[in-house]
Each structure stands twice: as C-alpha cells, then as structure tokens.
Design a protein that fits this description.
Chains A, B, C, D, E, F: Pfam families: RNase_PH, RNase_PH_C. 6 copies of one chain form a homohexamer. Chain A has 6 helices and 9 strands. With about 240 residues, chain A is an alpha+beta fold. Chain A has a 5-stranded mixed β-sheet with strand order 1-2-3-5-4. The first copy, chain A, has a 4-stranded antiparallel β-sheet with strand order 7-6-8-9, sandwiched between helices. In chain A, helix 2 crosses helix 4 (about 125-145) and helix 4 (about 125-145) runs parallel beside helix 6. The first copy, chain A, is globular and about 55 Å long. Chain A starts with 14 loop residues before the first strand and ends with a helix. The interface of D and E includes residues 83 and 88 of D.
Chain lengths: ~240, ~240, ~240, ~240, ~240, ~240
C-alpha cells in the first residue's frame, strides 16, 4: 500500500527545525512536520510561581493554541469565547508533562520556563510537533540561562531529550506520523512521547472505531519508537550536537 | 511485598455497584472501588444536539466532577471559579469516548444519553470507577428507552461492555487499581479502558518520575487486562445477567 | 384532607441524619427529608480570609449546589455554564447566614468552617434540609477543632442549634414540609429557620399566586415553629445528646 | 426615642416619585426614599422569551444594579468583575417576583416589560425603593402599550398595585424605613412587600444579631403594613389617580 | 441649512454642569449636553495600585458605562453578559487618557482617583460629555484631597483643564456637537479632546461612509477647537472661577 | 538627527508582503514592517451573520491578537485570562472598520470575510502592519470568491485599497513608521489609515506627554500621507498589478 503522500508506513514527513525564529524569546523554534507548522517559544524568567517559592526548584510549563485559520475551516478564538476548550487544555498539559520528564528542576534553580506552542498551520500531529520543537526551544532557553549565570554552570537542568510522534491504524495498516487526511479515517490513534534513549514518557492510544488488540498495540509502539529515534536525530542536528 | 491495604499486586479493591440509586434518573449507579465512591446517573432524552439532527444517529456524552470535599483537602468549586479545569475536561472527554466505543449510535436512534459522574468521595481511581459505573447506568437507560419504544425493540444500541482500571509502578513493582496513597508515589501511572472481550479502547500511560521501558509497559498492560476482566464480571452480576 | 403521601398537615417527612458519612471531612452528614437527600460536609481550616485576619474572630460560610440529575429533568452544570445562578447564590447565602446566627465567632478563634451542601436527590425542601444537616456537620467540625486544641477547650463556639423547614398553603390549607408535588402547586411558600429555643433566624414568605393575609401568615408560622421543634429533636438524637 | 433624622418610629422618609424621567423608556421613574435614589425604567417590547412563545401570556422581569459610587465607598463594577454577585441576583429576583404578583400575564398578551432599577445613590432601602418606583414605571409602560393597541383596550394587565418597605429593630425598638446608619446597627432587618389592599406578597425577615421572637415579628409587620399603605398613597398621587 | 434642533453649524447644545450631585463621592457632576446626561463621580482613595507603589506618583483612571435603557432600544447589561464590550473598553480608555493628560501624577502623590461615567440618557456625544463632566468632578476630588492634606497644599496636581466635543460631516456640511439623529447619518465622525489652552490631547476621526480629505479634516478641527473653548468656559463657570 | 535604525524621518521600515503563506485560507499574507511580523488570513464563507440575513449585503470583520511571546516580555494569553483586553478590542474594531471603508457590501453579496491578524513578532506598528497586510489577504479572498462564482463576475466588491502607518513626535521631531524604541518615548503618537487615492479613513492621534498643536498635527499628517502612498505601492506590487 502506498500512502496518500507517497511515504512508506514507517516514514516521517519532512522535518524542519528552524531555531532562533524569534527576536525576543530566550529560545524559539518554528518546527514543521510536513505541512504542520508550530511556533514554539521558550520564555525564561527568574523566580517561580508562588506555590513553589523557597523550594529551590524551578518550573517548566506549556501553553498550546491554534490560530483560528490554522485549520481548513476557521475556528472561533478561545479568547473570544471566553474559555479554553477541553482539547486545548489536554494538549497543554501533555506538552508540559512531557518536557518536565527530562527537566531536573533542582538543577534549574528557582527559574521558570514557559513554552508557548502556537499552531500556525495544522495538518495532523500538531501536539507531537509541538513537543518535538518545544524541547529544542527549551534547550536554548536553558543555555541562555546558563550563559547569564542564572543557572549554575555545573548544573545539568536537562537529563535527556524528548520527542513525540503520532501513529495509527488506517484501513488495518499501522502507519507512522499521520497527516490530517490519514488521521480522520484512522481506526486507532496513538501519540507516543519518548526520551532520547528510547524509553516512554507518555503513551496515549485511543480506539476511534473498533477496539484494538495487543498485537496492534505492539505494532504501533514499534513504529513510534522508530519515529522518535529519527526525530531525536533531527533535534540533535538542529542543536548542532 | 504487601500493599498498604493488604492486597496482592493483581487484586482489585472491593467493588460495589449499587444500581437504581436515584429516583429520577433513567439509569443510576453508586459505584465504589474501595473508598472511592462515584454517583453515575444516565439521563435519557429524545432528540439530539443541533449539529446531529437528521442524521438518524444518537449521542452519548459525559460530565465528570468532584464534590469540593470529596478529597482530603477541600478544593474550590469550578462553578465558583467560573471555569472548568483542564483535568476535569480531560476526564469528562475520556469517559464519553470510552462509552461511545461500545455504542451503536445508529441503533440508538436520535436519542441522547448524558452520563453525570460525580465523585462523592475520592481515594484514587475516580475516572476508572466512573467509567465502570457509568456503563451500568448507560445499560439501564438504554433498557428504559427500549421499554418505552423510544428505541426499536430489535435494535442493539450496545455492542459490548466497557470497564476501566488504573495500574502503576510503585517502588519498582507493577500494581493493579491504585489507591490514593499508592497513586501519589507511583513512578508510572496508567489508565486502561477495555471492552468486555478484552480489547483496548484507551491506554493512557504517564511517567510521573523515570520514563518506563517496554517490559514495564507490558507488565502493566497484563495487570490491567486482568483487572478489567474482573470488573466486567462485577458489571454483569450487577445487571443480573 | 389527606396529603399526597398520607401525612397530616403538621407532620414532617421521615427524617434521617447519617453522621460521619465522609472519610475526609471534619464533619459530614447525609441528611434526608423523605426523598430529598443532601450531603453536607464541614471543612475546618486554621486561619481566616484575608479581610478578617487579626480580628481574633473565625468565619463560617456555605456553598449549596444541586447535582445535574438530582431533579426530575437534568439541569446544566453551573461550572459548564461558567456562572452561578441567582437561586444557587441566594440559597448559599441563606445557609451561611443561618449557621452564623448560632456561631460565636470570637469563641471559634481565627478558624474557618466551610459547609458544602450538595443535593444528591431533590424532592422539595432542599434548602431547609441543607440547613438542618449542615448544623450537625458544623457541630462535629467544631468538636473536631476542640479535640485538636485549635479551639480553646473552655470556648463555646455554638450558642445554640438551628434547623429549618418549609411551609406553604396548598388549595387553601397550610401544610408543613412540602414535598415537590405540593411545592409546585402551593399558593404561598415560606421557609422558616429557627433556633433550638424556638426563636426566628429567618422568615422568607412568598406569594406564588394570590397574596396572603395576616391570618394565613400566622398559621404558617405556627406550623413552622412546630416543625423546627421536631427537627431539633432529631438533631439532638443524631448528636447523641 | 428620637431617630437619627428626627423621624418617629412609624414615619417614612420623604418620598418623591418623579415620573417620565427618561426620554426613551416607555415608563420611567426617579424614586427617592430620602437620600436613596433609584432610576426605574420600564422597557416594553412586543414578543416574549422563547420558552414562553405561543402561550398567549406576557412576561415581566427586573434587573437591579448599583452604580459603583452610589455607596459611601466605591464598589467594583460587576461588568468588570465579569459576574453578578449574589446580592444583586437576589434583589433582581425579588423585584421581578413582586411585580409579577400584580400582573395578569394573560391580559398582558405576548408582550414583555423589563424593569431596570439602577441605584444612583444609596442610603438604605434600595430594594424597597426600587419595587415602589418600578410599579409606577410598569403602570406607565402598560398604559403605553394599551394606547398603541399592543394590549387590548378591555384588558386589565394589572390586578392591583405593589409597594415595599424595610423595617427593623434598632436597640430593641421596631422602626419603619431604615436609613443606612440605622440599617447597619439593626438587630433584625425585614423587607415587606404589600399589595395596595394590604396583603403580603413577600416577607423576608433576618436576624442580624440575636434571633427574634413572635412579638417582635408582629410589631415589625404592623409597622410595615402601615408604611406600605402610605407608599401606596404616594404611588396613586404620582399616577394622578 | 438649519439643523434638526435649530442650531447653527458651530453651536453647542445647551450645557449644564450640576456639581455636587452625589452625597458620597469626593467629586461629582451630572453633566448634560442637550438630552445626553452623564453622571460623573470621582472617587478619591489614598494609595495606588500595586504596580505603582513606591513610585511617589498617583493614578487616575476611568470607567464608562451606559444604563441599559439610556438608549432608544434597551441594551443588555454587560454585567449580565459577563463581559465588557469593545466600545465600552475603548471609551473608558479614552476618558482615562484624556484626564491623565492634565494630571501631574507626581504632584498628586500616591493617591488614586477613579472617575465613573455612567450614561443615564444618551442622545449622541456621550463620551465627550463624560470627559467634559469628569474633568470638573476630578477638580473637586483633587480639591477635597488638598483640604484634607492628603495632597500637599503647594502641589498643583492639575496642569490645565480638558474638554471634548464631537464634530462630523452631515450631508456634506461640517457640524459641531452632533445629536443622535445627526450622528447616525454622518459621513465622517470625529471626537476631539482639547486642553483649556486650545491644544490637542486626542483626535479621533473616522470615515463612516466616504473617506474624507484634508480640507474636510481642517474644517472639522476648526469647529472642534471652537466648541472646546466654549465648553472650557462652562467648566470654569461651574467651578466658580 | 539620525534615527535609531539609520532611517530618515520620512522613511518606512523595509516592507515585505508574503502572499499565499497559508495552505488553508482563501487569502493570506505574512506582512513585515521591519521586525514587526503579522500573519493575516482571510476566511471566506458563504452566508452572513443572522442580523444581516436577507439584506443582500455581505460582511467583513477582523480579529487582532498577539502571540504571548511576540513581545519582549511574555504577556498572558487572553484565552487563559478568559477575556479580551481593551487594547485588543480597540484594534480589532479599527482593522474591521478600515477594511469595510473600501468594501462595497452589496457587490460582495451575502458572503462573509473574516480577517485574522495574529502578531507573530512585535516591534511597533502592529496595527498598521495588520491593516496593510489584511487588505492584500482580503483582495485575494475576494478574487477566490469571484473565481468560484460566489460573487458575481461583474461585481466590484472593493472600491479601492487601504493602508495604514504610524507617525509620532520624538524629541520634538515628527517621524514616520515608529519602531518600538521610538514608540515608547514618543510625545505624540498617531495612526493614520488612508485609501489608495490619498484620502483619510481614520485618524487617531494621542498626546502621550504634552498636548500637540495644529502645526505638529499637520506635520504628522503630511508624513502619514506620504507613508501610506509608499505602502500602497508595495501592496500593488505584491498583488502583481
């Protein structure tokens, strides 16, 4: 079977990680997974939220949002509706949790990094692109903090790297990194977040149609682990390591 | 290793499913997973939301909430704060999705069932208790609709049953159905939703501390599948089947 | 005339006061006035709201809410609508005021008790059941505070007890403790809150249809005073005094 | 005992009812109870809210609000805070209920009258002034509708008149129509709404300090009935009857 | 051409500035531009918002609002809708900015004056009437602060006066101080805020229909400068200078 | 005097208009005024808002927003705060009004175009860049509608073009197209919107410090008219005319 855009089942879409996109932010990346484009900025500030003061630990959090016309049909702004929808909440929390899994908050010291992930154009996989790009922006913001001695030179605030990819079963076939047209017809949809050393930070699989069995789950996990390995390579290159 | 409440690693907490708790609702269950108590009511109404009218299909949705003092420390009411938090949104969506996985909306006809899952007392696993109880309330509401001929006698709106359980790794040991004290110290936390025939509807695993590897993931899935099988038995008994 | 449920005009519905319902709260009661069931929890915390700090006085407040399907037809959640309705506000304020009428805030010291009254099932008289149950939960929370020396042993934070009942005129006949079916057809509806010694804390009478005259008002007050006396006896028994 | 402003215990403050204050509204009154000034406008529109359409019946409702500096200390605007407080809700509902008690909605036909009661200056008794003034504005709006044949000439949409006054016990003495300085020190506070023929529409008595007994309640009711009789005379004069 | 109300093109509507309208506010004015009536109160408080503390400078801000039936058709309350509309925001900001242009915040010291401008009746030009009236209320509040030594006797917190007027082009003719009927048909609409010495604080011109050219702009500015001069005279008289 | 970035007083920053940026929108432009970058998308939909149905006329509106880290210091998201700020409201309204000034809504037919202007990076002049870019996106969306016959081939929905620029007085010198560093120290700040033929659609001048006189106003208008002429040329080139 050939995929809609000619990829093989285990192939990622073209990945670009454009570092230093923003003039203002301490770290910033315009990440693209094919036509999905997400602007990730990392804002470094000294100090932590009130509930964490005096703990000696830092804080990392994230906010995700889609521009109203990032999608095929215009969506209402959440600021205009006056409240954030469930999906937005869910993804913001996922991104924050994923990044914190590789952050040593003690080493970060009482500093805060906020990752803003704004989807400029959506074509499936926005949350996984956001996590993958936000990690790079975070790495830059941490380096910024160390250069300015806001973080100790000897500290290692990042214990590893983190990347994410979607996988799914389309017409019975497990596929890596679904684009929008694949995503809407997938029977099962899964987002997997892995560390650079290939372990799991988050596994979220959902049966959109038929429930899935253990073999299907295993096939999807295999694909995802491979995809995250490739993304990790892209992150490393972008960071010039 | 002995667990805090004396259970074995693969043992559920005492399960009670108290059907017909409410005088008003078309289906209602007070479900208990040990000290976790959730009131699940199913409200059956003719008609569907505007966006679904004329489709010939029904709709099933869910809302989850915690009473302010269901927890050890009182939490603010979301109605008073004027907005629903991310966690509440996330769980409401999970419950709705899980139930819809066994609903044949065509067979349901243009009817709506709303499941309200209100946590009266929380001791870990509130979302999994909610799904497990809500399925029974939903089954009763569907039966109510069939008795009143709002659903065709020959229709089978439920294609199967659904139950959910939490699993996690505590001090390196995979455990089934975590109580609150286990939950807060777990390194990895996973919620698994299964159909009565043992397939997966939803798998949500999160590393709270160290990332987890494939072997740990497999051990957790084994426990969860066994736990859901036991819960399904409890659901069947409660429904007198 | 015989009432719909066979009671005499001056008879309360069956009263149950189930103390210690909750594992977490410092005081808790599941109170039932017939089919009306309200879960009342009292949360004791050291300290007072900012505006009261340094006054040496404590604070007692209440929040009332109905579960969406506590009623015959499902109501929208106020958390989902994003605002609290007028009726909810009004009743929360009434409960708080009623309880404070028997609290000596100086004797309570700089401690706060929040009463949450959540209606699990509604059949008329939810606010009066809430007040009657909340008083017992409050008494338990105050005792809890005295055992832990957060309140002085010699202090008497409660100057008396408080209970409440509804009365109304149905087809020209004054009746005590209206159930829902009586309530919706009542020409006049009155809620009366009394202290244990038979004095008034709150009298709220409303003509739903025809205005009422002085004689009718007097007949209703007589019924209410008698009803509160009976409720106070139930409270005393529940508290084992 | 002489009152702070020299009145006798059963004496109203100077009453002025300035009809036709607004150029735009179908009925409008600037009512003053001493220094308490409330602008009451009645907006007549054809048609009724959706839930009442086709019933053949009209609708009358009210909204109460205080200008931020109508009081001694500036209060935040509810529009800025983004929600309406409990007190505002409570009073709006009271005004609406009081006016509807003298409206024959069938005779009104499918028309709506909204009463806006905005407190320009507050000195105690704002809700009772609002009810008293709003009745006159309502009468003018109904007359406006009849002149324009939106209401049948033969119909009598108003079955009577309605007025309201506060009473309270200050240092043990029952007083009529409390000004702010009396109100804040009152042990018991009561608002009474009467029809023109001296019957009760609403009785709301609250013990602010000590609970009150039956004799005190009776003394307050006597004062209130007398005060409403005087207010009704003022309303009649203002309407030129 | 004769205007709808008989004025010449460069003539203001009758101006009244009723000082000391409110019993409570430190400064207050009921200002009328013809049938447009705005109640402006100035609330003086010691201290400044948190972000300004320790700066030695004071703060002046404004809030504008319209009563629901100040207009020909009733508008919903912003408090009921739960948010402030764009127009309200815009005008509040304009009033605040205009007043601050003549305030020396250093001379004011760490004190705050809040100007509330509530439109009781609208007939065009509500924002310009609000600015013109608010200046007088502000002057009174500043004088109040100086009498009470909250502002140094030698300080001059007001560097000048400020007034505002609308101008517009109606059927090709530039007109001063548009009433509502003129405003709705104007091709160009402009609000101009001037200091007492004839300089500009704010110029806001908008083409409602055809764009306007430089000559038309100049004609409008000429009219506005003349109108502000007349208003400034009215302010001075009202202040008894 | 040489400007901070070496420009002459009457020189625009480098202008780029990147058409067709978005895969989804009917018209889209990434516009840059120096370091200020705004993504403008035009969403074309058949039909109009309810209040305009049956009029035969179309509707054009705009929404402006800043990404949280488009600025030097991160700002809170308005969706998280739950309400839109005054500045955002004001600018959204300005953009919509400016575009409508060149739209013949009758020729547009009952179609709606929504312009979303999201600031990706801010360095002064975001609103003027938004208007200038949005016009080009609008032109593309209108062309899209004509190609698909949703607008009549013979219709001319755009009566002209529109562009905008900021001007201001910095240290006494009138300057064109202020960057952020100039903007914050400007004594007077003015935004001017012109049509392609050099007439005014909107003139908004504000004294940030000292009031400005007629000569200064004239100098600023001269600069703005010249700047808009240059921008119009850039728009024409981008559209390939």
């Amino acid at each position: 079977m050939s995929r809609i855009d000619g990829r093989t089942a285990d192939q990622l879409r073209p990945l670009t990680i454009d570092r230093g996109w923003s003039k203002h932010a301490e770290g910033s990346v315009l990440v693209a997974f094919g036509d999905t484009k997400v602007l990730c900025t990392a804002s470094f500030t000294e100090g932590v939220p009130r509930w964490r003061r005096g703990s000696g630990k830092g804080w990392v959090t994230a906010e995700y949002s889609m521009l109203p016309r990032s999608t095929n049909t215009r969506g209402d702004r959440e600021s205009v509706r006056g409240k954030i929808g469930g999906r937005t909440h869910e993804i913001s929390r996922l991104i924050g949790r994923s990044l914190r899994s590789v952050v040593d908050t003690k080493a970060l010291g009482e500093n805060t990094v906020v990752l803003d992930c704004d989807v400029l154009q959506a074509d499936g996989g926005t949350r996984t692109a956001a996590i993958t790009g936000a990690y790079v922006a975070l790495a830059d913001a941490v380096a910024w903090g160390q250069e300015r001695k806001l973080i100790k030179a000897s500290a290692k605030p990042l214990s590893g790297s983190v990347a994410a990819v979607s996988v799914g079963i389309v017409k019975g076939v497990p596929l890596l990194d679904l684009c929008y047209e694949e995503d809407v017809v997938a029977e099962t949809d899964m987002n997997v977040v892995c560390t650079g050393d290939g372990r799991f930070v988050e596994v979220q699989g959902t049966a959109e149609g038929e429930p899935f069995d253990r073999d299907e789950l295993n096939a999807l996990l295999d694909l995802a682990v491979g995809g995250c390995r490739d993304l990790e390579k892209g992150q490393r290159e972008a960071l010039g390591r």
